[in-house]
Amino acid sequence: RPQPVESGGGSVQAGGSLRLSCAVSGITYSEYCVGWFRQGPEKQREGVARIYVWEGGKILYADTVKNRFIISADSSKKVVYLQMNNMNGDDTGMYYCAADAYCYSSSSSVEAVDFDYWGQGTQVTVSN
Prior knowledge:
The chain is mostly beta strands. The chain is built from no helices and eleven strands. The strands form two sheets. Strands 2, 4, 5, 6, 9, 10 and 11 form a seven-stranded mixed sheet that branches. It has a four-stranded antiparallel sheet with strand order 1-3-8-7, with no helix packed on it. Strand 4 and strand 5 form a beta hairpin.
């Protein structure tokens, strides 16, 4: 039973960068799916990025973060990263990592319903 654990959150000035980490412990699959989600104050949870952790796995980004954020994976360590660059106030929120056995090819966006195993979240705050 996978247990995602996020780390790396904190405060950053607008235009700055942060890198989040998601360690997926207790996972038995050699190939699996990891997604990043976020929820700002008084906002709905939204998908940020998704990666299929296998060689040549497909990556998806939300339009709001494409060309600014980079998702990557170290499959040997079972860690997924979210590099966040050129951040702005809209990036403020609680960031969650989620995992499951598959990335569904039918999904064209990062959907929370596709994931069963969730971390507790890590807070990201962007200031002016």
